Amino acid sequence: MIAKLTGTVDSVAADGCVVDVNGVGYLVFASRRTLERLGGAGQPAVLHIETQVREDHIHLFGFIDRAERDWFRLLTGVQGVGGRVALSVLGVLDPDRLAMAIAAQDKAPLTAADGVGPKLAGRIVSELKDRVPAFGVAPAPSDAIRVAAVAPDDAAAADAVSALVNLGYGRTDAVGAVAAVAQRLGAAAAVETLIPAALKELAR
Phi, psi at residue 159, to the nearest 5°? Predict the structure, then answer.
């Protein structure tokens, strides 16, 4: 089982790349985010690998960091999400924004990925919401996803998020802004304090 590749980028395509490791070329499927960070042919490459073995093929999926690989594993555990769809999601949402979208129960950002309609986006959010309670997650050093609340899940925070959404902000962005200011201001912060502080956060 291949878990990591260290070599040189031989070529890059729309959905993956070939990594030369001591003269052996490995075809690795990857997200747009990973491919952009890898650079072009001739660049050094270090990829974390998820190997999928099926009856008719062996596919290597590569990730620029462990957080992206961990999210790939979570996504492919959802019914209807294969490797290519998971890469598509990770190509439009980095791990932090994906975590925030799921924590906010906001399926809209996921539908920007090819192959993800409203129904599948809703399933992803529903099945993974318990892995992201409250407002966010952080990758743990042990290569697992460690869930950590970063804002109080109380009425003031909920009201602040609702107010920002009513002002036209996306739910994911609203949740992120309220989470950030609530962490700074503390659990006792009133909604009247959270809203203007969150607006300043969104204006950055």
Answer: -65, -40
CA distance 15 to 83: 11
**23-80 per-position pLDDT tens digit:** 999 999 999 999 999 988 999 999 999 999 888 889 999 999 998 999 999 999 999 9
DSSP state of 14: S
Quote the CA–CA distance of 72 and 78 in Å, as a whole number.
10
pTM: 0.72
Residue-wise pLDDT for 25-38, tens only, equals 999 999 999 999 99
Domains defined along the chain, listed by start: 4-63 (2.40.50.140), 66-147 (1.10.150.20), 155-202 (1.10.8)
Sign of the alpha-carbon torsion through 181, 187, 191, 193: negative
**How many other CB atoms are found less than 10 A from the CB of residue 185?**
15
Q: Which string of DSSP letters, residue by residue, matches 92-157?
A: HS-HHHHHHHHHTT--GGGGGSTT--HHHHHHHHHHHGGGS-TT-EEE-TTSSEEE---S--SHHH
